[in-house]
Write the structure tokens for this entry.
Amino acid sequence: MKDEKLFKSFPIIQNDDILMKQIVKQDLNDYAEINMNEELYRFKPGEPRKTIAAVENIIGHHERDFYKKIIINLGIYLKEENYKMVGVAELFDFDKKVNAATIGYTLNKNYWGKGIATKTTALLLNYLFYEIDVNRIQAFVMPQNEKSKNVLLRNKFMKEGTIRQGNYWRGRGIVDLELYSILKSEYIAQ
């Protein structure tokens, strides 16, 4: 794993449709649409933010956590919509011994069903496998979150199983999570 590259500066990952980059204060209104939406928190830890100030505070936390080498939160922007921020991609739980990383994603509800999460995941795989040289990428999904599971399956992840009552999520308590993963050798063979 090339972690020196991973945390050198916020990555910029893109294709013809999507740009992923650092979330900045100019994104506050778009970011608030995501973080203040109760429905989006049905399948993710935490609770929706109640105020714009609370959402703005999160942006500062993202930068702090990046420099502590804990997590990378990237905004997902649509090029065809004048770079509107429509979601967040997360890269975290970097394990040098296993050479693995965990990913996650959240999209503004107005952009569900448009293939954005699938394209975002494909971009994350390419970045982590080829630029950072990880061997394993995994994602955890609540069993009820069919849309997210389909995103992972379309990107050739394999379901490894269900971790029963094995995680505590703030705002949810103890939850079951399904574990999906893909190895670099599997990705290359596609």
Q: What stands out?
A: The chain has six helices and eight strands. The chain has a mean pLDDT of 93. The longest helix spans residues 52-67.
